[in-house]
Amino acid sequence: MVKDHGLQSEEVEVTIGTLSAEQAIGSPSRQDFALLEGREVMIEAQFKGSFGQAFTEHPQGFKGSLSQVQDLSLATASNRAIFISTLNAVSAHLDMVTGVRHCRDGEPERCGSQVALCLQQSFGNIEVGLIGFQPAIMENLIERFGVHNVQCSDLNPRNIGSHKFGVEIKDGRIKNLDVIRWCNLLLVTSSAIINNTFDALRNETLSQGKPVIMYGVSGAGVSALLGLDRVCPLAH
């Protein structure tokens, strides 16, 4: 994509530290979003007036050419976050994708309701596996589909083993296959692209003939380029 548009030498800047939780998500009514808890942060790439964001636990700043981004080793989470946020910014610049900046203030709460409604309208009353605990989405999935029709796994030790809205959070390191086998549809945080678990989740889900949908801003560019399903109704 970069080569086709002759952008190799163009500079991109990825910033961290300047995106506080308030800047990234505003002031939502609930305080249990990951950005507000501080375990994950949002980095943002800026390219020719367009932006791209990515969640990561391993933030690292970067300033250089797009060809240098392309040369980054993707073996580390910090480099993957730089690569993905840049991909999102370039995709937005080329008008290939929208919804590349996180929703804010009251929007994250409304997002959960819209995601649950969208899934029900598209797939009916189903069993949903949620990979990556997102409180507003999970609460609305349970309200719409029922407590016995939602399972969730997460990688955050603070969440694993706890009960959220009547559902126990499974250990995403060892229980994702159980969630996939159980569900009719898998809803996956696009942060899985950054932590390098998305490919395995998607491949296993598709091998079982089940749909998989990403949620979140991190997956904007990847979903556009590869034709993957993504739901992120209130992203900017």
Task: Describe the protein in words.
With 236 residues, the protein is α/β, with parallel strands linked by helices. The chain has 2 domains: 11-93, no CATH class; 107-231, Rossmann fold (3-Layer(aba) Sandwich). 37% of the residues lie in helices and 21% in strands. The strands form 2 sheets. Strands 7-8-6-5-9-10-11 form a 7-stranded mixed beta sheet, sandwiched between helices. A 4-stranded antiparallel beta sheet has the order 3-2-1-4. Helix 4 packs across helix 10 (220-226) and helix 5 runs parallel beside helix 6 (135-145). The model has no long low-confidence stretch (mean pLDDT 89).
Estimate percent helicity. 25-40%
Please tell me the overall pLDDT: 89
Tell me the span between the first and last alpha carbons.
23 Å
CATH architecture classification name of the largest domain: 3-Layer(aba) Sandwich
Q: Enter the CATH topology name of the largest domain.
A: Rossmann fold
**Helix-strand topology string:** EHHEEEHHHEHEEEHEHHEHE
- Overall shape: globular
What is the strand tally?
11
Strand order of the largest sheet: 7-8-6-5-9-10-11
CATH level 1 class label of the largest domain: Alpha Beta
Structural domains: how many: 2
Q: Beta-strand percentage?
A: 15-25%
Low-confidence parts: none
* C-alpha-based Rg, rounded: 17 Å
- Structural class computed from helices and strand pairing: alpha/beta
